[in-house]
Amino acid sequence: MGQGENARAATGGRGSDLGPAFNDPASGKRNGPPATPFGRALPGPGEKSAVVWLSDQLPAMVHLLAPLNTLEAINQRRSVRSFCSKGISRETVRQLLAAAVRAPTAMHQEPWAFAVIQDRQLLKSISDRAKPLALAEMQRADCDAEVLSLFAHPNFNIFYNAGTLILICGQIANPMAVADCWLAAENLMLAACAMSLGSCVIGSASETLNTPPIKAELGIPDDMQVLAPIIVGVPDVAGKPSPRKEPRILCWK
Fold first, then answer.
1. Which sequence spans correspond to the domains of the chain?
2. Residue 23 pLDDT exceeds 90
3. Whether pTM exceeds 0.85
4. Neighbours of 157 (CB within 10 A)
């Protein structure tokens, strides 16, 4: 049975969204909902399915989630751009950072550092400053008109109203910092998925985040640059799977 068939079977044939998690990231207790696409439902004794349908759109898990293994986290990770108003705790952020620094690092140099922003007023302020630069860059790249319209809207938040922004910063002089920091970013996002959280890289904010005034405001030293800006939060809708092409193999000798 393929991945899509597994997902349909888990949701009674209604699609691949696996419904809301019962993990509360702030307290660590299991309750719910909000809806997320993460985790695997466990059927209870005598039950045929771990999913009941509250409506045609909203699946709700009636049992706790089993931990994801590595391949499940890789396959279930989605870029999430819609979040509940509830934030995540400092302890949850620390767990994500602990996962990030377990990434491979060239010569064991660990050239990364992190900035965490959970002040919503500051997030909005950075968003307001980032949108004009991002919009100008998209116009130069001849991006889709719908995307340009979104970024031009005065109410659009470049961080999608997420309550947590984690900046993975790297040493500018270290030639392997870019690779190392993006490896750390993937670790962080997979850990978020395994914890029933959503995440998304906000590359459109990178130029603004690396301007001297913003770096000074956030305490980022001159010898470091923001490489991976990642929003994290509790999703309020199930993320949709995105297609991937088959691996392009250049050589297999």
1. 90-233
2. no
3. no
4. 17
